Amino acid sequence: MKTYLDCIPCFFRQALGAARVATDDVDIQRRVIDAVAGMVPDFPLDITPPQIAQRVYRAVYEITGNDDPYREEKRHSNEKALSLYPQLKEIVRGSDDPLLTACKLAIAGNSIDLGPQVEPVDLDSTIATALASPLSYDNYPQFRREIQDASTLLYLADNAGEIVFDKLLIEEICREERIDVTVVVRERPIINDATMEDAIVVVLNQVVPVISNGSDAPATVLSQCSTEVRDIFNSADLIIAKGQGNYESLSDVPANIFFLLRAKCPVVAVPLSIRVGDAVLKGQTD
Amino acid sequence: MKTYLDCIPCFFRQALGAARVATDDVDIQRRVIDAVAGMVPDFPLDITPPQIAQRVYRAVYEITGNDDPYREEKRHSNEKALSLYPQLKEIVRGSDDPLLTACKLAIAGNSIDLGPQVEPVDLDSTIATALASPLSYDNYPQFRREIQDASTLLYLADNAGEIVFDKLLIEEICREERIDVTVVVRERPIINDATMEDAIVVVLNQVVPVISNGSDAPATVLSQCSTEVRDIFNSADLIIAKGQGNYESLSDVPANIFFLLRAKCPVVAVPLSIRVGDAVLKGQTD
Predict the structure, then answer these.
(1) Residues B25 and B101 in one domain
(2) ipTM surpassing 0.90, yes or no?
(3) Quick one: which of B38, B37, B19 has its CA closest to B28?
(4) B2 is a domain residue
(5) Do the beta carbons of residue A104 and residue A128 sit within 8 Å?
(6) Could you read off the pLDDT of A167-218 as tens digits, one per residue?
(7) Residue A246 sits in which domain range?
(8) How close B57 comes to chain A (CA, Å)?
(9) Which end of chain B has fewer surrounding CB within 10 Å, N or C?
(10) Which of A30, A63, A64, A119 to mutate to test the interface with B (most CBs of B within 10 A)?
């Protein structure tokens, strides 16, 4: 999807949030804001929001001298999610439709997002609500069929912490079907997106192969991805893209993608006729 | 109060909102955003937020060629509030403490604000909640004493529509005490702030004298106000300042002011230890 003018105030909010985590120096925070302001006239609105966010965060990291301000937050998210894993695993295995339950949990895990989300989310209540509620955008029947038919699956992860929830879903997919799954994470730290380090911490790399994508965009910008990732993307029977960043970067790419996310803002929610915070499981062709 | 870096994303959001009401031309909307971005490095954070908002809105009006984009919205707000007036008057007169009830309603009326507020507010439910709830920041006992002691009162109005609620409170003040009340409105249209035209439409000018302040700031910036308004400000026994803009512009001015508002954002709510949306009746000396 393209970038909307609505995204511009959000870029400033995100830049300020990251700058404040990176440094307590208000003068440096002000320099970040001024730098983003200087970039605005050059923002091409025909590229996707995460491509612009990538430029904004690079500026934040350069000016503050901190290229991973959310490092501690990511560590905390992984720990919190890992502590929930055993009970979530039981919930999945004990449910009537473990694959659906794992999908709902994977989407609930997408609430761990420090980018476009305005209000911090209480993970426990988000999980409880997710388990008790239907999906707001629900292509699960098609998704289930595609999973049954696919031999190869590319799983584009999103955030740290969230990848523990992804692990639950991936384990469920692998249990139900004979399917080769590859997980892709970001190449370098960007916002709180998952990198190889996070995949190793949550031991996802011992379940399925995990590779990094060659890019520090908070999304999957194919032109920035490694040849290996692009080849897997082009040959996979099925792609699961987690989170709003991956949705924003891939919503116009013709491929057999299912997007699993919580809608973080009206720019995404309104065209899908859902509300901010709603759970989405959407096929690309729907 | 000074301007916080948090205010800068909000200025962009407000500029975009006003630009979209002023014109459907996305290129012009983009020019507005770029113009505000160009102004950011020159924003002095030691002046109040409404002083910067004044510059931002002037740019919006100049670039879009529309110097009163919220004109229709203001007309609608006045009509809606006037339609509620008879029943609200009955509620005030029938209540145990009519002055307190009128204060609560005047604060509920401050929900009609198209500036810093992110989500539009349902006026009917806001009124019902306001009547049923205590004030979140409550200096009403002191306020009541000051009203009883004062001979002259300056009432700084805020928004169109809201001034119907102000009229209810002013009528109650005049009923209870022998007190000379003067109402001040903005000189020219800015956001949805009340001007003399609105005061006339809601017939407030037939209840008490109404004068305009000489400024198009969405607030009371004394240095921009007419000598007449400054003289009344300096000599009044008591000042009622409605809304967040007046609070932001006068919170550091030593005077016998009571601020009546709904908190619109964390920058105001957090230092007062209340939540966004909460009702405030705060004395300057508290």
Answers:
(1) no
(2) yes
(3) B19
(4) no
(5) no
(6) 999 999 998 668 999 999 999 999 999 999 999 999 999 999 999 999 999 9
(7) 71-283
(8) 16
(9) C
(10) A30
